[in-house]
Amino acid sequence: MTFLLQNISVLRDLLDLLLTALIIARLSRLLKGVLALRILAVLSALVVGHLLARLLSLQTVRLIFDTFLASSVVVLAVIFQTDIRRAFAALTRNRPEKGVEMSDVIDELVFAVGGLSQKRIGALIVIERSIQVDNYLAVGTEIDAKVTSELISSIFLPYSPIHDGAVIIQHGKLTRAGCFLPLTQNLEVSKSLGTRHRAAMGLSELADAVVIVVSEETGTVSVMVGGKKTDNLEPPALGKLLRRLVEQRWLK
Amino acid sequence: MTGVKHPDQSAGVTLLSLLLAGLLWFSVALERPSEVQIQAQVVPEHLPSGLQVVSAAPGSVEVTVSGPRILLIGLSLSRGSCGLDLTGAAAGPASFSTNDCSFGLNRELKVVRVHPAAISLTLVKAAPR
After folding, report:
1. Residues A66, A70, A71, A76, CA torsion sign
2. Quick one: A174 and A217 in the same domain?
3. Total-model pTM
4. Rounded to a whole number, what is the distance in Å from the CA of A151 to chain B's nearest CA?
5. Within this chain, do residues A72 and A114 fall inside the same structural domain, yes or no?
6. Which of A11, A61, A81, A151 is the most exposed place for a label (fewest CB within 10 A)?
7. What confidence tens digit (pLDDT) does each residue in A14-47 have?
8. Same domain, B8 and B58
């Protein structure tokens, strides 16, 4: 106890340092690898510059470094607004409740996707979660209908005028079809990935939506969330994954 | 899955995060107020014309300065001076308060005390050439 009281300032400093490191490490995980390295290096250089300018009493140089450091928070927030928004969405997302009844919407989706996959009919289905996807959609036909496997299957049939685009599900209703989605700008994505998959990935990078893709070439089903792809999903696995990713409140 | 980070990148990000945290903490810690004692060379200034100092050289004074640690580190690295203003001094022995010295310090630094508090000098009229 005496030791603690004697060294309270040292312990406080250690706690301060550890918490600062933890906060920065957590924040840097929101960014992509190479970018995070560059940003952290630049910020470190700015802090070193500030310290040197302060030590040597170089007032103008210090002003420049301080201005860059102060504005870096705003600049980073603007550049990484999408990542920040996604991170906040992930933070506010509750863990799925156990024993939640399988929703009709997911059942219908799994059934429709299974059928399309068997027939090798390409499909792109977006399930909106906490972030609205409206701002990222181009074109599209408003529908506002109950989600049924028959409706989804008929939309994606090759002779349908709105088959070439994405179907949007918002609050458990099929609200739009034939929508064009933004393509991913991620250079690390495999070149073998087609436009439908690139569009799915592009939207999943910008919003927290769950995007289901059925490949026209292979009939395989993939799910994309947060710029990450899960491949080769069989109907039972797809249902299980969707029930884990999509909470009841987003279907109401 | 795509977009998986390379292990080296993750280690690099962690290391740089720790470095940045350390630097930030260091820059904050260095702004904490502290005190330091420095030796400042006494330099008589503004000696009235026709007078000269005949007593022993005043040498140096011990100055206690307070302010942000980072500025005190810079101060410790440089040699301080105590500019003793002799304006208005007359011939004969006189005592000058070292508190009136100009130390040429950064505006954020403050002189807490100076030892000795006064310096005695003897001034005489210089012989005309």
Report:
1. positive
2. yes
3. 0.57
4. 30
5. no
6. A81
7. 888 889 888 888 887 776 667 778 888 999 999 9
8. no
